[in-house]
Amino acid sequence: MRTSPCTGRHALPLAGVWVVLLLMAFVYGCAGSGRAPVSGPGVTARDADSSQQRAREQRAIPASGQHIVSRGDTLYGVAWRYGLDYRNVARWNNIRQPYTIYPGDRIRLRPPTGQSVAAAAKTTRGAPSPPLSRSSTDKKPSPPLPRSEAKQQPEQRRQAAAQPTGGDKQAAADGPVQWSWPTEGKLVRAKSPTGEKGIKISGRLKQPIAAAAAGQVVYSGSGLIGYGKLIIIKHNATYLSAYAHNNELLVKEGDSVKGGQKIATMGAASDGAAALHFEIRRDGQPIDPLQHLPDRQG
């Protein structure tokens, strides 16, 4: 070690000074990280964002209290999006089985003003927007058609989604539901950071997804933001189940399915990993699937 000619003290070599400075920069750089960890087993920041997006999408009822039907919408899908019981939505809008809705219809998301839920059953359906003509020779909007006339001209008032065959008769009776696990894999999330009751099961891309119980497919598509390719099954008048982020949908709306029947293949969740998001709802409200699914062996 050299001695400083000015002070007579020992001086560090220049290389040593640089090492000290680099170490200090590294330590302060690590301490200055402003990222907060995301708590919970298997929960990533992207998982949290996706869950929050779903929660916002489900609960954010427009200020108008109405939903304007787009192509691909079903009554079940609309009710699911806003966290409502499909039976209430049907009553508020005087829509009867098989709950057919059309593009442009205005669906009430709350009971009519000054009326209770029970009284809402007597109200009339929300006034639809003028439908667009499906004629290739006339691309201008057609004038509104009376409901009775519209039923006689389905080509001018195309249904938002395929009409279920057999209506609710194909769904299981309103009794106990025999639940089973929809797929194999590791349970990586029992509850989302937002308190959502759905679970996340990891697995392999394109592995089979099965119906968790017998019932009728009431939604099959990708129109609900945050769920990817989604299937909703009605098991009885009380219970619905949902299977999100699928790679391929193997059933269509109106299909009757058995418990354990293959309905889809696993796709990728929001973080890019192969996984299934699974939910059960009772009277339109999410509940904890683990309270209904059987214990897993091993």
Automatic annotation (TrEMBL):
GO terms for molecular function: metalloendopeptidase activity. Belongs to the E.coli NlpD/Haemophilus LppB family. InterPro entries: Cell_wall_metabolism_enzyme, Dup_hybrid_motif, LysM, LysM_dom_sf, M23ase_b-sheet_dom. It comes from the Bacteria. Residues 104-194 are annotated as: Disordered. This is Lipoprotein NlpD. It holds the Pfam family LysM. It comes from Methylohalomonas lacus. Gene3D superfamilies: Glucose Permease (Domain IIA), LysM domain. Keywords: Lipoprotein, Membrane, Transmembrane, Transmembrane helix. Coiled coil: none annotated. Residues 65-109 form the LysM domain.
